[in-house]
Amino acid sequence: MYAIVEIAGQQFKVAKDQRVFVNRLAGEEGDSVSFDQVLLTGDGDNITLGAPAIEGALIGAKITRHLKGDKVIVFKKKRRKGYKKKNGHRQSLTEIVIESITAKGGKKETSAKKEEPKKTSPKVKKEEEVSENLVSRAEKRADESNIEINIDKVLNSIGTATKAEAEDLKLINGIGPAYEKRLNEVGIYTYEQISKLKAADRDELSALEGITREKIESEEWVKQAKALLKNK
């Protein structure tokens, strides 16, 4: 029996006892995890297709280790500007072994400790405030760093924040000190701003050295930022 399942933004064809390398997952080595985004299962000539996922289907797995992938060289050059940058990147990965494939009636489990749900009063969604002064200052910093990005478009989409309101973006898996500095340069300081990044905004941020739309989506920056907002 085999299945096609979505794990951390990527799709894999898996079978029992197979070892799979996926984008970094939360959890420790030896923890059990499960995935319910099962798109297809096959058992001989019997194939079940989801729409998009199969209701009740579940893939059970165990985390065997965390590691980093092979180094990828990222080289950027701007013609007639004397601009060249060379960086290396090693993707954070998790190795898992598939323990079970349940076609229907599975119950999702997570290795992370479950906390008691907190009772919170409903929050009133406030209108996005955009400071043109902050946008202008971010544009000036981008020009000084030769960053070709439509900052006005991005900040009008996700809102503006001051340096005094800055939060530790390094708590988001995939953002290190260098990426945090580049995000700050274009006016992105808070989890709330990261949580509001739309597809078009992620494309614009690809102009920042080392940051791509694929990286933002595969490492689930938006999802992580929303979780950090809830825990504030």
Word description of this protein:
It is a single chain. With 232 residues, the protein is an alpha+beta fold. Helices cover 25% and strands 31% of the residues. It has 7 helices and 8 strands; from the N terminus they run ββββββββααααααα. The chain has helices at residues 132-144, 151-158, 177-185, 191-195, 199-205, 213-218, 221-230, and strands at 2-7, 10-15, 19-23, 32-35, 38-43, 46-49, 58-78, 83-102. The strands form 2 sheets. A 4-stranded antiparallel sheet has the order 2-1-5-6, with no helix packed on it. Strand 7 (58-78) and strand 8 form a beta hairpin. The longest helix has 13 residues, at 132-144. The protein is elongated. The chain starts with a strand and ends with a helix.
Short summary:
This protein is 25% helix and 31% strand. The chain has 7 helices and 8 strands, in the order ββββββββααααααα.
Give me some keywords for this one.
single chain; 232 residues; alpha+beta; 4-stranded antiparallel β-sheet; 7 helices; 8 strands; 25% helix; elongated
Biggest sheet, open or closed, and with what strands and sense? Answer: 4 strands, antiparallel
> How widely separated are the two ends?
44 Å
Mean pLDDT: 86
Q: Give the number of DSSP strands.
A: 8
What proportion of the residues form beta strands (DSSP E)? 25-35%
Broad structural category: alpha+beta
User: Helix count, per DSSP?
Assistant: 7
Shape: elongated
- Largest sheet, spatial ordering of strands: 2-1-5-6
Rounded to the nearest angstrom, the radius of gyration is 21 Å
Helix content: 25-40%
Point out poorly predicted stretches. 111-115, 123-128
Order of helices and strands: EEEEEEEEHHHHHHH
